[in-house]
Design a protein that fits this description.
2 copies of one chain form a homodimer. By secondary structure, chain A is of the alpha/beta class. Chain A is built from 16 helices and 15 strands. The first copy, chain A, has a 7-stranded mixed β-sheet with strand order 4-10-9-8-7-5-6, sandwiched between helices. The first copy, chain A, has a 4-stranded antiparallel β-sheet with strand order 11-12-15-14, with helices on one face. In chain A, helix 7 crosses helix 11.
């Protein structure tokens, strides 16, 4: 039998959340071992004098958190401890949304195409010509197809920002960017500091990773003006802009630029299938030619089958249809994460409120340390990346990235609830009595 | 006049692709004979009520397919069937042998697999786990999947032979190897010279590119002994060994080694489909872990769909069946190239006689200069790579690589005959009378 927790009707924490926490702790401490059958909702509601829907809500949250497994007609059982953690650690799309039938139809069409033998043969460093045309390669602008955005950054480092040069970046920034430039022996300068002699400025104007920040029109124009004045090439990472869930789109740096000083990085990975590594760089022909040469000695060219498949997926209209579904879900994810953070985080927590993308930035109140608390979060089955992976110059011990793109709204709520519990336990604002009452 | 194809605006196939297919079929069926002038894009766009860019895109594709020749200001003409140049310049398989039906069946099976959603999601830097297991990842040895052999070399340079180090290589060597190490600031030392302090020795024991040379057992053992004594890591490029057309296989360096000092590079590209960029490095776990870390900041991971497809192609037995057909054809290619060279090259020419692979090395007698003669060879429709692309320390002006893997025996004979004619014309040993008689 389940040990009956003392629930507090006066608490600001809803009863179902209190019940969820109590059962979660009982599972964590082994009081309820794996395989243990929980009492039916009706029975537990009766013995605790609760509404049955309260118990159902708690069970549902436990199920979403992977702590129990519910089977219709058989009941709910404590899950094996290792059962799927809730990971806020990776900026990725929700695979439950993958349109598998549309993908299969796309592949069938590519397979039926007469050009399949050419696709399977060695290709050109620049990429598959029909895909490059689709992406806007023209007389004035060229396109290099890369293995996702990451390789575009790697090639840009190797060609445009060699050992010993300086590059301006946002702070905090995407770890894959930080890593590739630091390993290439490049000095990173945190924007908005502007250093004369720096080779490049690399920014993500829409839904930046990790903060979710979107640059205003004035900020964009300022950046372009500064770059023009100082002869700095701008790298615009544009991989999230198609995932706007609310608000109006702003013109991209490329659209605002009239000097050819912007290289834009795009990718199909965030909007469709990250397992297919297809990204690109678009810009001035001479710069793209230098990047394509590096591409050739790096790995000859990007996988052609996947290039042909994403092209077909896009040309057939399936990509746009899928994007609309992703946006509808993104709106729900965004609402779920904001609601849960507002409710669950300790007093004094702040967080960014993006209009799209997959990431936001949470700052816990001092003295909470997101890196130090991570092992405890992982122990309760939740994962995230603390600020140190993203920091260029400013350590923010209380901060972490919360990537919500890969989780359903329900899993987001459950995960943030678990995190909130870990953080509140360490938070000086919580009364010890209250803490005891909850356990 | 061109027969007007019925294009379907409702079709999911883009209009330019439909137009391309219609014209392609008309050329194939002789409706549009060689030399026929296609209508100007504007005119055809008018009569078909199409956008002119649609017609231009179709013509561009036809041009790339070698089906038409476009000349600025003169128009586009149906190409001679045989007028596509005979290229001995690329080490690639014969695409006429691509088993398209087997490939399509493989893709259908992968698409029907329940793991497809996981394949389309972000993967692990090391590669797709089932493929790594297939390639022999174990407790003692690990496997990193790369974008073909080229990326394996790039990662090895970046991790194991950084700027300022020295690496021993065969001379002549593969241009992709030379390039990537020289650009990485590595000093190349031509084997058999052995330099104390060099980090790596990189060799292709079977059917080396460009010479086709196979190391004897004694040479292999000597190399392993030297490497062991000097603490040098050996990189064994093993991408051609599955393509032995005659003679008995010798044990690989990995098989002869008992000290864990060999990293072996493999690839599916030479034996199956180079457009799918799947290669790997196999060896000691600590070395593979360092390479995998570099792989992650380079491009996260290799395309997962293609990894799943080549795995299925291999596991189903189709790869081995295909390999047997490639070997049977390779035997014919090898016989054709040797016979043609014996017959057609100027007196004093020597060439290597490989037992497999795709390449051999031709040395023309002095004062013939293979680089200087290349434009003339290209004018008669034949292409090859002169020695300077491969040279590490010894210039060999008379030498060039002849890559025969991508051509049918008939095209090989025709191409070598054309080359022989160009070279003999420049050769002092040929009597003017004989020359006249031949021309």
């Amino acid at each position: 039998m389940i040990p009956l927790p003392a629930l507090d009707e006066q608490s600001e924490t809803p009863l179902y959340r209190q019940l969820f926490d109590a059962i979660r702790v009982a599972i964590r401490d082994g009081v309820l071992p794996p395989g243990h059958r929980l009492p039916p909702t009706r029975e537990l509601a009766g013995s605790l004098s609760l509404n049955r829907t309260t118990v159902s809500a708690a069970y549902e949250l436990l199920d979403q958190a992977g702590l129990i497994r519910s089977h219709v007609g058989r009941g709910s059982f404590v899950a094996e401890p290792s059962s799927s953690p809730i990971s806020f650690a990776t900026s990725r799309p929700l695979d439950e949304l993958f349109p598998l039938d549309e993908f299969r139809a796309t592949v069938r069409e590519v397979m039926a195409d007469s050009s399949i033998a050419a696709i399977l043969q060695l290709g050109a460093p620049h990429g598959y010509a029909p895909l490059r045309r689709y992406l806007g390669a023209s007389e004035t602008e060229d396109v290099l197809v890369t293995n996702g955005c990451q390789q575009a950054l790697d090639l840009i480092q190797r060609v445009l920002a060699p050992l010993g040069t300086a590059v301006m970046v946002e702070d905090p920034t995407y770890p894959g960017l930080k890593n590739v430039f630091e390993r290439g022996g490049v000095r990173l300068i945190p924007l908005p500091r502007w250093e004369a002699g720096a080779r490049l400025a690399i920014v993500t104007p829409n839904f930046q990773n990790p903060t979710g920040h979107t640059m205003s029109l004035a900020e964009r124009q300022q950046l372009l003006g500064d770059a023009r004045e100082q002869g700095v090439t701008l790298i615009e990472i544009d991989i999230y802009s198609a995932l706007r869930y609310q608000g109006d789109a702003l013109p991209s740096l490329v659209e605002l630029d009239d000097t050819g000083s912007v290289l834009q990085i795009g990718s199909f990975s965030k909007v469709s299938f990250p397992g297919l590594r297809i990204g690109w760089v678009k810009g001035r022909r001479d710069l793209i030619a230098r990047l394509a040469e590096a591409k050739q000695w790096t790995d000859l060219h990007t996988d052609q089958l996947s290039q042909a498949i994403v092209l077909r997926f896009a040309e057939s209209g399936r990509l746009e249809a899928h994007r609309q579904r992703v946006i509808a879900t993104g709106r729900e994810q965004l609402a779920a994460v904001a609601t849960a953070l507002d409710r669950e985080m300790p007093y004094g927590t702040t967080f960014t409120r993006p209009d799209g993308g997959m990431n936001l930035w949470v700052r816990l109140p001092a003295p909470l340390d997101a890196a130090a608390l991570l092992p405890e979060a992982q122990r309760v089955g939740v994962n995230y990346l603390p600020a140190r992976y993203f920091a260029v110059s400013r350590p923010e011990p209380g901060a972490f990235r919360l990537s919500f793109g890969g989780l359903t709204p329900e899993r987001i709520s459950a995960g943030v609830a678990l995190l909130g519990e870990v953080f509140r336990r360490e938070s000086p604002d919580v009364h010890p009595e209250l803490l005891t009452a909850m356990v």
